[in-house]
Amino acid sequence: MLRTILNAFGVADIRKKLFFTAAMLALYRLGAYIPAPGINVSAVKEVSSNFGGSNVLGFLNLFSGGSLSRLSLFALGIMPYITASIILQLLTVVLPSLERLQKEGEVGQQKITQYTRYLTVALAFVESIGYVFLFRSIGNESGTSVLGTLTFPKVMLIVICLTAGCTLLMWLGELITQRGVGNGISLMIFASIASSIPNGITKWWNNPDQVFVVMMPFIALAVIVAIVFVQEGQRRIPVQYAKRMVGRKMTSGGSTYLPLRVNMAGVIPVIFAASIMAFPPTIGQLLNTPAALSFAEFFSPNSWPYVLGEIFFIIVFTYFYTAVTFNPVDQADNLKRYGGFIPGVRPGRPTAEYLDRVLSRLTFPGALYLGAVAALPTILISQTSANFFFGGTSILIVIGVALDTVKQLEAQLMMRNYEGFLK
Asked: What separation in angstroms does the CA of 48 have from each of 55, 58, 124?
């Protein structure tokens, strides 16, 4: 593996992409420490000291890489963009106009991406206003003045800065995807979670619950092994190509396979489910009324309603995202167009029905696996006195993004005849 990394840095094109990705992530982490204008930094630090992994603010703070607890320029993180992506993908199924755009290929996808950007800015603007008044309310309850005297120009200055920070993150993520290695948005979430690892390890080591201290490494190792095992699992559908005339040449038939992964959707359903389940507690915290706070506590990240809701949305989004990324009808048409067929299955509609049936059977255990990995560590941790930073959702995202990034890097190495990471 070390030799492969050295080979990767030996290729000028890949080396530039790696350095560019690292520079963008470093800029992202730098912005997490630059406070928004007009705030009392020491007061924010005092107020945010009770942000733990057991409440929604601690959960959102984890996904923002600690930016929310500092009320920095990147306090919103990349979550508004993810929320906007969820909304647009759901509307694509509902609105025929968006569905037509999606079928127009690259041009239509660019328009949908543009709509996603506009919606991201709108969501970021609304969330910024909510966070301003939320920190003001928390500061008043604790007797500290986080924002001082609020005036309309001051509120607008903070809101515009936070919105601009979210927009900048969206742009950086798209730059990483286009010019770097891996998916930029996923890598930013990866960097946010990974930045909390030292603090999480310290809290784990100093935890008074000795059973938790002893068992946590084994739980984490078991989860990692299960994630890697299932993420790499696939069903290989044999495909046979018949001989055919192309111009004046006879092409020889051959055999290959169509790989269908157990988890076709990757970590996207987990990110989507986490975004949706964080929405009700966030609204409860922003309203800051007794009923709203009780509602937010009811859906706290370590509660049973939150776990069950997360499992439900993970299963739904796994089927939804798999249907979006893999169309059995298109696959069957492509096989028929190039003279390919699955042995024992007639080309055309029977092939599409066969692929759909196999994919449905694969997606169900894949969805259950995602739900179990996301919920089981959280359930086990909640049974101890631990306030640990990393539940199954965080571990799943980190490992899933790492595997996807490594595969992309391996694909670029294989194109240049270098030995890849994965055997």
From this structure: 12, 9, 21
CATH code for the part of the protein at 1-195+394-423: 1.10.3370.10
Furthest CA-CA distance within the chain: 85
Mean per-residue pLDDT of the chain: 79
**pTM as predicted:** 0.77
Q: Which of 259, 312, 301 is nearest to 278 (CA)?
A: 301
The pLDDT tens digits for 397-415 are 788 788 888 778 877 777 7
CB 83 within 8 A of CB 175: no
Decide which of 1.10.3430.10, 1.10.3370.10, 3.30.470.20, 3.90.226.10 is the CATH code for 209-390.
1.10.3370.10
The Cα 252–Cα 284 span in angstroms is: 65
The pair of structure tokens assigned to 167 is 């927009």
